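User: Can you help me understand a structure? I only have the sequence.
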Amino acid sequence: MEKLVVSSPSFAHEGLIPLAHTGYGEDRSPELVLSGLCKDAVSLAVVMNDMGHPIPAYNHWVIWNLPAMPVIPGSIPPGAQVAGWDRAVQGIGYGKHRYRGPKPPFRWSHVYHFNVFVLDSFLNLPSTARKKDLLAAMQGHILQQAVLAGHYR
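Assistant: Let's start by predicting it. Here is the structure, written out as tokens:
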């Protein structure tokens, strides 16, 4: 199976996340491009974590049941159900059903991981699910996974 690689036209791997994708800017999710997506892929899930937060891997975004596609569009609107995709769900990350971009305090630099999971099925989870629920439900269904890292100060 080919290796999955996640990239974004907005920033390079380990590069600076642009203001538009942060809580200090427009708080828009970035476009994510998947190279090497396997042919058996059924759905995608994304978990975005703040790796520099005092709470380990603090969660900013959790979304699942995206259709298997080579480009996850940017600017996914808020809401538990994602407009345009019948099954796509945004769970609770950072206390909201939406993408919440980087917003580290005191100008500290934090690293953020956009973890993309390629799954062999759709998941049956309520929109009240959190990262731990998604991670548990994905067990045994992950075909591929990759991470795009970025930082913001």
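Now, to help you interpret it: The first strand starts at residue 5 and ends at 7. The domain at 5-152 is CATH 3.90.280.10 (Phosphatidylethanolamine-binding Protein). Let me know which part you'd like to focus on.
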